[in-house]
Amino acid sequence: MVAAGDAGKIGVAEKLGIEPDMVVQELGWDEDVDDEVRAAVEERCGSELLDEDAQDVMDVVLLWWRDGDGDLADDLVDAIGPLADDGVVWVLTPKTGREGYVEPSDIAEAAKTAGLSSASPVSLSEDWSATRLIGAKAKPKSKR
Predict the structure, then answer these.
(1) Contact, 25 vs 50, CB < 8 A?
(2) 90 DSSP β-pair partners
(3) Has residue 138 got a pLDDT over 80?
(4) By the 8 A CB rule, do 2 and 11 touch?
(5) What is the superkingdom listed in this entry's lineage (predicted)?
(6) How far is CA 83 from the centre of its chain?
């Protein structure tokens, strides 16, 4: 049973498709990230998020990205290196009007350059949204 205070956190992890025992890597962490999103993902997968030094095969990569962080396409190519064949990259960006906001078209262009396809962004929190990217080998997300 989920406590009332935990319902929102688990909902965020479920929006990201996080399941128990998934291996999740986090890239682009900085002090502005949403710690509640991070906690929800850790709680749902049952372990801490791995950093850029991890050598595991990843089920999910969470890439916190802000305007001015560099070349998104290059970072996406790096992010998909350890990704499982059916793995997913989520690009987490500040929402419209927030410092560091990234245009969805910029994400889509970088994804295409990296050999990924993107979906429409989803809202994660008051300040952050996420865009799901998958490679050619990944299966589309099933409808429940």
Answers:
(1) yes
(2) 62, 132
(3) no
(4) no
(5) Bacteria
(6) 12
What is the rounded end-to-end Cα distance, in angstroms, of the chain?
21
Positive/negative CA dihedral, 36, 41, 46, 47 = negative
Tokens of 57: 């095969």
- Closest among 28, 144, 131 to 89, alpha carbons compared: 131
At 136, which amino acid appears?
A: A
Q: Torsions phi, psi of 9, nearest 5?
A: -65, -45
Dist. CA 82–CA 96, nearest whole Å: 30
At 84 the pLDDT is 94
Q: What does the pLDDT look like over 15-45, one tens digit per residue? A: 999 999 999 999 999 999 999 999 999 999 9
CA gap 47, 144 in Å, rounded: 25
Q: Are 65 and 120 in contact (CB under 8 A)?
A: no
Whether the CB-CB separation of 117 and 123 falls below 8 Å is answered with no
